[in-house]
Design brief:
By secondary structure, the chain is mainly beta. The protein contains one helix and 37 strands. A five-stranded mixed beta sheet has the order 19-26-25-21-23, with no helix packed on it.
């Protein structure tokens, strides 16, 4: 039986270290609590720092539409009304801000302002593009759908100026896409003649179409899905059209006009456009004339009956058209020179054909006739008067003319020293026809006699020569007149 020790609390002798274990465990518990406390403090510190003390860098990169940096001013605020502003910086500057939501307003003289917002939870860059307040807009652009190397292709741009006062010019346009790398363009007018860049302006409140001729680079290879782009400088809006580069088509054309015609005639001349060797259709052929009248006649272009609108020639086809030239009967003798121009996106440059058209006035076959050219009057010395009279016929002959003749006057004149034809000739004016129709004639009866026998004078060699005159409008020159006459000899015996 073991000895009992009332103060031993058990058999402690079995574990030599048991007597100090209580105090060792106490000490270990306190160390762990301190460690936990320290961890909590550190966590709280980092949480507070993250929520309230950490800042991030906010930088700016503000450019215009041409990728040029701007010296813009950026206002940053905590509210969209910008009453709680936190920063006011210039472009390319940076600032430290705490985490949160922010609003910005970008201001630059001459440019439209721009607003935005961002949530800051890391370094952040405000990137924006500003536009100028330019009241210019591109409504439409037209460019050939197919072009080829060395071709001169025309870009047509419809521009609207919405400003009530500002005048813009060609410098306000920017060309992009494939056009950016092409050679300089040449401005042209509506008939294809070159003009200066300074001649192109965009007046206030007007819509204007301009035409620019580009040369397709000589090293261009066949390629699809290219684009021609036009934009307003310092604005983002733009217009573009797609096109392709193809092999050069082989198109033969012919037209000859070098001849002499008479006024009032219609002649025809053949135009040929041979597209039989090509696999593409010609959809935009346009015919125009550049003509000059040697004597300055107006409206000579209207004589040429060209096809209206654009001419369409299918692939593998040949187009032939007779061009009628109708010279008015009223045209004066003239020489018309110039050229026929054919334009198309399929041509490197316009096809031109020289024109020389000599115009001769038609013959005027109007004629006047007298059935008698000598009249003898009898004088009775006893009665001392002329005892007879005669009637002669004046024929107004228009049988050979294809145009009517307008009669202005029929009258007589003296051609001899006696100067007394008015005493012998009577023309009834009420019988003179005002108009002689084409392919017809009319007669006027004229009385020859002595009105007053006492005025006859000496009977020796009593002869006088008079003329019967007809004044009429020129059948082809509407502002000119022609005077014709016939002699008549009147003897008194």
């Amino acid at each position: 039986m073991s000895d009992f020790d009332p103060f031993g609390g058990g058999d402690f002798s079995r574990d030599p270290g048991y007597g100090s274990d209580y105090y060792g465990k106490k000490k270990s518990t306190k160390g762990k609590g301190f460690f936990i406390f320290l961890v909590v403090v550190i966590i709280i510190y980092f949480v507070v720092k993250f929520l309230f003390l950490t800042t991030y860098t906010v930088s700016t990169e503000i450019k215009n539409t041409e990728n040029q940096p701007l010296n813009a001013n950026i206002i940053i605020a905590k509210d969209s009304g910008f009453s709680n502003k936190v920063a006011n910086i210039n472009n390319s500057e940076s600032i430290k801000l705490k985490k949160g939501s922010y609003y910005y307003n970008i201001l630059m003289s001459g440019y439209n302002s721009k607003k935005g917002n961002f949530t800051l939870k890391d370094d952040y860059t405000i990137e924006e593009v500003l536009e100028k307040n330019i009241k210019l807009a591109i409504k439409n652009i037209v460019f050939p759908s197919q072009v080829y190397a060395n071709q001169e292709a025309v870009l047509e741009i419809e521009v609207e100026n919405k400003s009530p006062t500002e005048i813009y010019n060609l410098d306000n346009l920017v060309f992009d896409g494939a056009l950016k790398d092409w050679e300089n363009f040449t401005p042209i007018n509506e008939i294809g003649f070159p003009i200066s860049k300074e001649e192109i302006t965009f007046p206030p409140t007007k819509i204007k179409i301009i035409r620019l001729r580009f040369t397709v680079p000589s090293d261009s290879k066949p390629k699809e899905k290219l684009d021609a782009t036009v934009k307003i400088k310092y604005k983002s809006s733009k217009k573009n059209v797609n096109f392709s580069i193809i092999e050069e088509p082989k198109i033969n054309t012919s037209f000859v006009l070098n001849t002499t015609v008479k006024s009032g005639t219609v002649t025809s001349y053949k135009l040929t456009i041979d597209n039989s060797k090509n696999s593409i259709s010609l959809t935009d052929l346009n015919l125009s004339l550049v003509l000059e009248s040697k004597i300055g006649q107006e409206g000579v272009k209207n004589w040429f009956k060209l096809p209206l609108g654009e001419v369409y020639v299918e692939s593998k086809k040949r187009y032939e058209k007779m061009i009628d030239v109708e010279v008015p009967i009223t045209s004066l003798a003239d020489e018309i020179t110039g050229e026929l121009r054919i334009t198309s996106a399929a041509f490197k440059e316009p096809k031109t054909f020289p024109i020389t058209l000599k115009v001769e006035e038609p013959d005027n076959f109007f004629n006047i006739k007298l059935d008698k050219t000598t009249i003898n009057l009898d004088y009775d010395e006893n009665l001392q008067m002329v005892t007879n009279s005669a009637i002669i016929k004046l024929t107004l002959d228009n049988l050979k003319n294809d145009v009517p003749i307008t009669i202005e006057r029929v009258f007589f004149m003296d051609t001899s020293p006696r100067n007394d034809c008015n005493n012998f000739i009577y023309i009834p004016t009420d019988t003179i026809p005002p108009l002689i129709y084409k392919k017809s004639n009319q007669e006027v009866l004229i009385t020859i006699g002595a009105v007053d026998s006492s005025l006859i004078g000496d009977l020796i060699n009593n002869t006088r020569t008079c003329t019967i005159n007809v004044l009429y409008q020129h059948p082809f020159r509407t502002n000119d007149t022609i005077e014709d006459y016939k002699n008549i000899v009147i003897n008194v015996e």
